[in-house]
Amino acid sequence: MNSKDSEIDKYKARIRELEEELWAKSDRIEQLEDNIMNLEGLLPTDSGEFDKEKVISSKLEMELDEKGREIRSLKNKMGFLRKEKLALQKKLEQQEKVINKDSTVIRVEDIRDSTTPLDALVKELQSKINKQEILIQNLKNTKPEQK
Fold it and tell me: What is the DSSP string of 87-146?
């Protein structure tokens, strides 16, 4: 029974792949039909001349539409990749929680890395305070001399 189920699953997966391919090709056919309609509008007028502005604008419009479709496709792929990334991150976090439950070791390196920017800020503020205190002392010392 298992072999039949696996074969059925394979066929279902293949059917899904073919359906996706069919949708992609039908979308492409639709795009090409739109391009053909735009190009038919560019056929020479009764006098036998092409309208240059119309040709250029149609060409740019077709290129813009193509780029828009590419961007949409890439955005869709990025969305799927983000979902996959989030799922993998959750899975990794769950595995890390299982590992952390087994041990009670505190990692000092992790704590130090997170406080490093704060330490630098504290040192900078302390140096500013020291400079201001020196300046105040200098001003106090020079004030009696001026009297």
Answer: HHHHHHHHHHHHHHHH-----HHHHHHHHHHHHHHHHHHHHHHHHHHHHHHHHHHHHHHH
